[in-house]
UniProtKB/TrEMBL annotation:
Keywords: Cell membrane, Chlorophyll biosynthesis, Membrane, Transmembrane, Transmembrane helix. It comes from Prosthecochloris ethylica. This is UbiA family prenyltransferase. Gene3D superfamilies: UbiA prenyltransferase. It comes from the Bacteria.
Length: 333
């Protein structure tokens, strides 16, 4: 084999390993990490704090989230042959052994990063950080691996995702820079339930494969229309609780903004529920050309509708979340 061919083979293999870590999912943890840091009100413009921030993102992004994606692909090979045949393992670009090695490396790196941050911070905060990353890695494993395989049932799969991607990330980010703020716990809880609602709808894309393989997603159990209703109800409750919390914290103006966001969200939900195919069609351009690479694309009607909704909902929720986190942080400065 020529040197050029060997180099090309190495690059393609490296790309396959990177794709296995599913980089588009890394960004999903960033809002909670940013919110946790902002709510602390304690991060300084120092080399050390910027390093800690970088390590936080690496620990929960490429390493932690990457581990969960790799393990998911490893144990769901047969399912991916139906749902996502172009992924690295079913397409043959990586062997199962190579994928397993990938998961072991990123798991150890995530754990090592957590230990370093925990020792650097120390005390109760350090225990929160190391406990969180260990719990996140364990949940990521049992989410996809038998015999528990939490993803088999929506009653265990959605909370697992909310816990790993939203709850522990928010608290860990807060703990790196300060004692856990009481408001940060509430914001982490809101993110936990928002993640549950979104993962419920994200299962639209794999409904066919889930049904054939016996996985009990909510869509398989109650149908797409009813799944929309359940998810929308959770989201609206999250917004309502968010508004009440900001009022109790004395952020009256923000409370009104969140209530307006709730009303806008309900209007959008009604349009989408009535017409999943054309509802919120003005957001399709954002899905196809704007956020498409980050949130994904789909040919499944209900999932494509969810992607359009996700763009609108994320703007309404995340902007308010980060504003609230920032206001909490200012209070503790």
């Amino acid at each position: 084999m020529s040197t050029a061919a060997s180099r090309t083979g190495f690059v393609n293999k490296l790309r396959a390993h990177l794709e296995l870590l599913d980089p588009v999912t890394w960004i999903s943890v960033f809002p909670c990490l940013a919110g946790g840091v902002m709510a602390s009100g304690a991060m300084q413009a120092s080399v050390q704090d910027y390093l800690f921030l970088l390590l936080l993102f690496l620990m929960y992004g490429p390493l932690g989230t990457g581990f969960s994606q790799t393990i998911n692909d490893y144990y769901d090979l047969e399912l991916d042959r139906i749902n996502e045949p172009t992924r690295p393992i079913p397409s043959g670009r990586l062997t199962e052994k190579e994928a397993l090695l990938n998961s072991i490396v990123v798991c150890l790196l995530a754990l090592g990063t957590g230990i370093f941050l925990a020792l650097s911070v120390g005390g109760t905060r350090g225990m929160i950080i190391i406990s969180s990353i260990i719990a996140g890695l364990v949940v990521a494993y049992i989410y996809s691996a038998p015999p528990l395989k939490l993803k088999k049932n929506i009653l265990t799969s959605a909370p697992a995702v909310g816990f790993s991607y939203s709850f522990i990330t928010f608290l860990s980010a807060n703990a790196v820079f300060s004692e856990i703020r009481p408001e940060a716990i509430w914001l982490a809880v809101l993110n936990f339930f928002m993640a549950i609602a979104l993962i419920i709808m994200n299962d639209f894309k794999s409904a066919k494969g889930d049904e054939e393989s016996g996985l009990k997603s909510l869509t398989v159990m109650i149908g797409a229309k009813n799944t929309f209703l359940v998810a929308f109800a959770i989201i609206d409750i999250v917004f309502a609780l968010f508004a009440w919390l900001t009022f109790s914290w004395g952020f009256t103006v923000l409370m009104y903004v969140i209530l307006v966001s709730l009303i806008a969200n309900i209007v959008i939900q009604v349009k989408l529920y009535k017409d999943p195919q054309q509802g919120l069609s003005f957001m399709q351009h954002a899905v196809d050309d704007g956020f498409g690479n980050a949130i994904g694309k789909s040919d499944v009607q209900e999932h494509n509708a969810f992607l359009r909704y996700q763009v609108a909902n994320n703007l309404l929720f995340l902007v308010n979340l980060l504003v609230a986190a920032g206001m909490v942080g200012v209070r503790y400065m």
